[in-house]
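[READ THE FOLD]
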Amino acid sequence: MACSALRTGYRHLGAARSVVQGKRDMWKLLGKARYCTASNGDEVDRAKQATVESSRFRNKKPTIFSKIIDGTLPADILYEDSKCLAFRDVNPQAPVHFLVIPRFLLPRISQATSEHVQLLGHLLLVARNVAEQQGLTDGYRVVINDGVHGSQSVYHLHVHVLGGRQMSWPPG
């Protein structure tokens, strides 16, 4: 199954929620591809568009992540607590690719303040724990994209954890 078909299927899943029984069934459907690699241009274009939308709505428009938090969009949830949520990335770039997000909106890591120290530490510890649960014993990569030049495509802070294969350097 092609990456674009996975993304299209995921986007239109909201309309077909009554057909798909439960979150796990949806992920079985989407799990046909081991992982996809979007071209760098695609991600850069999405980041530019997200920056425009974030500016236009001043971070008031619900993000895809806020919809996952409130349950209006399904996700393959790996961990949750009162501070954060970890779930598989819908467009995985490695055999294991999940995100860790705070339950409240903090749009960018560059907007974090000293008030967020405990939360940021918690996000990283959760990333470590979930990576261990996912069997990433040989290592993994932790990534936080920030702003348009960092190719941030969703303006809700999120920590990417990628593993299950050898990562290359530089990342891009």
